[in-house]
Amino acid sequence: xxxxxxxxxxLVWGVQSAGYAYLPPQLTLPGAxxxxxxxxxxxIGRIAQRRFFDQALIDGAGAMQGSPAWIDGRVLVxxxxxxxxxxxxxxxxxxxxxxxxxxYLGGGFxxxxxxxxxxxxxxxxxxxxxxxxxFYPTVLAGLWALAVWL
Length: 150
Description:
The chain is about 85% helix and about 0% strand. The chain is mostly helical. α2 (about 25-50) runs parallel beside α5 (about 100-120) and α4 (about 70-95) packs antiparallel against α5 (about 100-120). It starts with a helix and ends with a helix.
């Protein structure tokens, strides 16, 4: 979790302190928000692919707890939650702090969600970095934008 917090500070503070040219949110938000969408598409596709090789899953049964298909389902649910949070906060961040940060948040989202997904399959405690590296940047950027806005 601490590594995820460091990731958040490096991402948000690093982009803000780099002094990138201002890009309007209407140019950057579509790309920034497409990144979580592409991660979701990959996860949905992986779950759908698993159904072709498991008779119980193709018949609509739930995945057995602890199975790779079950883990993928848990990762998907958490990623939907994170994507919704991002979709609600990133537009405010982009309008307040500039669109470049939104693009970096989108790229960071992809990296962090993949780390979460892989970490969950390797050993559930390893998912902590991916969770924190997704959640903390969104919250930190949102709080920073709120402080600037106020």
